[in-house]
Each structure stands twice: as C-alpha cells, then as structure tokens.
C-alpha cells in the first residue's frame, strides 16, 4: 500500500505563507515544532517497520530533518507545501495529515485532498469544522449530555467579564496544544483582552487525561488512556504523557471519549475515518460525575508517540485497517511514558 505522511511543521508549513496565521505573538514555536517532529518521526518509523507500506514523506527542504531508511522523501520548496500535499496525495493509496486546527489549517488540507480526488484518513469535513472550534465543540458536547466545564466565548478584544471569577482558563477558540492558554488562579488578575476569539471556562481540578480513538465503519474504537503532563505557571506547556494504568480510571476515560466523539459526529454529519483525540479531566468521584471533557482534536495527536513507541502494535496499520473496515476492534496496545524534547527518538 502506498502511504503519504505529511506533518505541517516538518513538511513545509512553518516555512510557508500560512505560518503567520498559526504562529501568533507569544506562541511557543519551538514547542509546536517539537511536537510535530515527535509525531512525524513516530509515524514514519511505525509505517516503515510494518513492512507492508511504500512510505512517502513530505519534508521541508530547509528543515534538515532525518527520516528512517526506506522512506521516499519528497522535498518541499518554500511556499509549496499545500500544493505538493495535494499533488502527492493523488499518487498514493492513502494520506495521513497532521496539522494544527488553528485558522482552519488542518481542515483546509483535508478538504483540498478530497476535492482533488485523493484518499485521506481523517474525519469528515463537518466533524473537523466543529472540533476545530473549541466553543462549537463544547456546544455539541453539552447538547448531547457530555459533561463539560462551565464557560462562555469571548470576541477578539473583549475584556474578561468581572463576574467570571477565578480559578479559570482562557484559550484560543481555534488554538493548538497550549498556545494562547492562560490559567488564572484565585486572587490573580485576569490577563488583557486577546487579539483573537477565545473561550473562557471554569478551571476543573483533577487528573488531565487524553484518549485517542480510531474511527471507521465499525464505529469509534478507543485506545488506552494516557495521563498528560504539563508544566506549572500561568502559561503551562505540554511535556509528555504516561500510561494511565488504573483499569477503573482508564475505562471511565475511554467510555467518556467515545461519547464525546459520537456527540461531535452527530453535530458534524459523521466521523468518516482516522484518529480523533479527546482531552478531559477526571475528577475524584468514582462514579465520574465530576469528570469533564475539555476538547476534541480531529487529527492525529502527540499521544501517538507513547502509544506507538513500544513498536509491537503497528499503529499505522491499525489506523488504516480500522478506516477501511478490516478491523472492528483494536489489538492490545501497551503505551509507554514519553517526554517531549528537541530530539524525541523515533
């Protein structure tokens, strides 16, 4: 099977004209690029190790990133990232795209491939539109009875409402990762108004967990839950993940993730195929009544690094098989702890 792998940072996005739409003042570009490299290398190593894929990777001509032996590299000139992505997608059987939702970057690439007649392993365009907007996601989840934090949207330039008391969190409505995320604790002054639309929500105490789900004709299949690690401070950063371990907690998280993906799918006209990540907080109650879903990511997430690092699962093969209805269940996956660094091993 001919498989094209594209990761926006490594495949020319950061060198292209859309970079200024994604990278805003104060954004941690190094962190964004580091996560991108980790996913890119993990995907390539997993796909090559399978032995059943003819793997092509789009690589920014100026990045100098190394790829595993056996990968066919297509060098992307500055400014030609989306054009090359669409062109190469027509030469393969399927494409995996990793890109930020910010400013519609991910959705535009998926839609462009489909419009050209290419096959891409991703959720439906309608699902992506909703999941790329944090307020629209919360509205879809709440309408379906999925528990979410209390909050509201703020327009660009709108001041923090005086009646909205900390502890609270403000995030860009279309942000990726921790970009534009501000945590305001009790007694702290709110930040100045943001230049982009944001969502303001009550801070939820508990365990930060991510659950990745594979989607295909057989339905929504959760992978093992991962505990998420973040730095402290007013502007936290994502540091990596660990296996959640505790079966009761993991089961609770995975069931909640399936409900969340199903809710967004109903609002967006179906899920189609691919990988969807769900971020949540698990509270202290054993019955799960204080658990809350924070957001739904309509793309392959950094959890792939920990879920695929053991090398035994062949996760790219599983993604493909679920998407084309060769699987109605996922094999045992044994995630490992991982930390993001400048040189995450493949």
The total count of strands amounts to 15
Which residue ranges are poorly predicted, with pLDDT under 50 across at least 5 consecutive positions?
A: 342-346
Helicity level = 25-40%
Q: How would a textbook summarize the main sheet? A: 7 strands, antiparallel
Number of domains: 3
Structural category is alpha+beta
Which CATH-level-2 architecture of the largest domain? 2-Layer Sandwich
What shape does the CA trace take?
A: globular
> So, the CATH homologous superfamily of the largest domain?
ATP-grasp fold, B domain
The first-to-last residue Cα distance is 22 Å
Strand content: 15-25%
Note down, in words, how this protein is organized.
The protein has 346 residues and is of the alpha+beta class. The chain has 3 domains: 119 residues, Rossmann fold; 154 residues, ATP-grasp fold, B domain (D-amino Acid Aminotransferase, Chain A, domain 1, 2-Layer Sandwich); 54 residues. The protein is built from 9 helices and 15 strands. Strands 9, 10, 11, 12, 13, 14 and 15 form a 7-stranded antiparallel sheet that branches. The protein has a 4-stranded parallel sheet with strand order 3-2-1-4, with helices on both faces. A hairpin with a 7-residue loop joins strand 11 and strand 12. It is globular, with a radius of gyration of 19 Å. The two termini are 22 Å apart.
Topology:
Layout: E1 2-7, H1 19-22, H2 29-50, E2 54-60, E3 72-76, H3 81-89, E4 94-98, H4 105-116, H5 125-131, H6 134-143, E5 151-154, E6 168-172, E7 182-184, E8 198-202, E9 207-216, E10 219-222, E11 226-230, E12 238-243, H7 247-268, E13 274-282, E14 292-297, H8 303-308, H9 315-323, E15 338-339
Parallel strand pairs: 1-2, 1-4, 2-3
Antiparallel strand pairs: 5-8, 6-7, 6-8, 9-10, 9-11, 9-13, 11-12, 12-15, 13-14
């Amino acid at each position: 099977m001919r498989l094209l792998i594209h990761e926006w940072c490594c495949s020319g996005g950061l060198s292209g004209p859309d970079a200024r739409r994604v990278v805003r003042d104060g954004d941690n570009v190094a962190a964004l690029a580091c996560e991108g490299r980790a996913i890119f290398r993990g995907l390539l190593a997993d796909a090559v190790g399978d032995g059943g894929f003819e793997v092509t990777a789009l690589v920014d001509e100026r990045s100098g990133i190394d790829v595993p032996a056996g990968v066919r590299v297509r060098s992307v000139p500055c400014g030609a990232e989306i054009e090359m992505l669409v062109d190469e997608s027509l030469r393969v059987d399927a494409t995996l795209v990793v890109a930020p939702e910010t400013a519609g970057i991910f959705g535009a690439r998926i839609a462009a491939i489909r419009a050209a007649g290419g096959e891409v392993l991703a959720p439906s365009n309608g699902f992506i539109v909703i999941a790329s907007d944090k307020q629209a996601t919360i509205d879809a989840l709440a309408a379906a009875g999925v528990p979410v934090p209390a909050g509201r949207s703020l327009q660009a330039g709108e001041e923090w409402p005086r009646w909205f008391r900390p502890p609270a969190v403000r995030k860009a409505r279309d942000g990726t990762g921790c970009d534009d995320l501000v945590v305001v604790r009790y007694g702290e002054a709110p930040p100045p108004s943001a230049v982009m639309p944001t969502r303001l929500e009550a801070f939820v105490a508990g365990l930060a967990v991510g659950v990745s789900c594979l989607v295909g004709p057989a339905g929504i299949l959760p992978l093992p839950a991962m505990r998420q690690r973040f730095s402290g401070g007013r502007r936290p950063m994502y540091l990596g993940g660990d296996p959640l371990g505790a079966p009761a907690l993991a089961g609770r998280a995975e069931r909640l993730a399936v409900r969340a993906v199903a809710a967004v799918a109903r609002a967006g006209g179906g899920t189609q195929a691919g990988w969807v990540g769900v971020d949540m907080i698990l509270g202290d109650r054993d019955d799960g009544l204080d658990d809350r879903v924070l957001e739904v990511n309509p793309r392959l997430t950094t959890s792939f690094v920990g879920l695929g690092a053991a090398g035994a699962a062949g996760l790219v093969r599983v993604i493909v098989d679920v998407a084309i209805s060769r699987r109605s269940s996922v094999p045992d996956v044994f995630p490992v702890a991982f930390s993001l660094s400048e040189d995450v091993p493949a």
